[in-house]
Design goal:
Blueprint (H helix, E strand, L loop, with lengths): L1 E2 L10 E4 L7 E5 L16 H9 L10 E3 L5 H11 L1 H6 L1 H13 L5 H13 L16 H13 L2 H6 L5 H19 L4 E5 L4 E6 L8 H7 L4 E6 L2 E6 L15 E2 L2 H8 L7 E4 L8 E5 L8 H14 L2 E3 L4
Parallel strand pairs: 1-4, 2-3, 2-4, 6-7
Antiparallel strand pairs: 5-6, 7-8, 8-11, 9-12, 10-11
């Protein structure tokens, strides 16, 4: 197959990886909500969905074009597997691990995390070695340019991730620091399995722990991060997609809780909830570095709303 930018597909028969169907789409291989991906290929990441599709040649559709409507690590790896299946199948486990790190911030090896960090760095105008003009393009054209450039980067990245050290070493050091803080007990993770919640406590004098470390150290899809008097409830990406390997608690609309907290919060801080439809939404305080409210009270209220609130997002609907 060949990669074709999403906006250039028109009615050409195509397969969409990690996105939504468009004109001419014969098959969607995506964990996105309501993607229409056949259940026989279902998996946590779109990249693994692609590999399951490649495992079933008899089920392959008659399309020569593959595309996606956005750029990210999972999409890139899935499309790479479609355009170069021979190489991809040789490195199947490594590529799925890198896609998992990129999408969910969960790493089974440092190599997987380093691959994801490198792809992310290439796609970030602040760190990318790619031509500056790419990042001045409209989003669709920028995504197309990134796919074209980075599809060529995957093979050498697989061959030797250390060649790309300058793109991942800062994040890698942060992983080491975060792991050590948890292992030494400076940072604690208290799991409340019945709520699919992890309460993470970080001392105010310690730096924030890298999100990859937190996501890897707990499977809970709801993270209440308490960093001194800074408090944030995060819904992980696993709750937005059609996640398959474990049950993820449905998202609860926390807008009423934001209103409740704002009735007592001291200005200029304002509590906001991003909305259940966001990819990784959070309940957080805007306009102030720390809340004026007792942290224990916020924790209790979060638990109450998660326990009593109605499900407000269903990616499988």
């Amino acid at each position: 197959m060949r990669y074709v930018p999403y906006d250039e597909l028109r009615s050409e028969p195509n397969v969409i990886v990690d996105g939504s169907a468009t004109g001419g789409t014969l098959l969607t291989l995506s964990h996105w909500p309501q993607s229409g991906t056949p259940l026989e290929f279902a998996a946590d990441t779109s990249a693994e969905i692609v590999f399951r599709y490649l495992d079933r040649p008899a089920a392959n559709v008659n399309a020569a074009a593959v595309s996606n409507n956005h750029f990210d690590e999972d999409g890139l790896i899935g499309i790479f597997a479609m355009v170069d299946p021979a190489t991809a199948l040789r490195y199947r486990d490594r590529l799925i691990a890198a896609a998992t790190a990129g999408d969910f911030g969960v790493y089974s090896s440092r190599e997987a995390a380093r691959m994801a960090f490198t792809i992310s760095a290439f796609a970030d105008d602040a760190t990318s070695p790619l031509p500056r003009e790419i990042f001045n393009l409209p989003y669709a054209a920028q995504s197309a340019a990134l796919y074209r450039k980075l599809l060529a980067v995957i093979p050498p990245l697989l061959a030797d991730v250390n060649t790309y050290r300058r793109f991942w070493e800062e994040d890698d050091r942060a992983l080491t620091a975060g792991e050590e803080m948890i292992d030494q007990g400076a940072v604690t993770i208290e799991e409340k399995a019945d709520l699919d919640l992890a309460v993470i406590r970080i001392p105010p004098n310690e730096p924030m722990v890298h999100a990859y470390v937190l996501n890897t150290r707990t499977p809970r899809s709801r993270l209440l991060v308490i960093h001194g008097q800074h408090v944030e409830l995060r819904y992980r990406y696993e709750g937005w997609v059609q996640f398959r390997s474990r049950v993820v608690a449905p998202r609860v609309d926390l807008s009423p809780l934001a209103v409740e907290l704002n009735a007592e919060e001291t200005p200029p801080g304002t509590w906001e909830f991003d909305g259940v439809e966001g990819i990784t939404p959070s309940l957080h305080l805007r306009g102030a570095p720390a809340t004026s409210l007792p942290v224990d009270s916020i924790e209790a209220r979060v638990e109450h709303h998660l326990r009593t609130g109605a499900p407000a997002w269903n990616p499988f609907a």
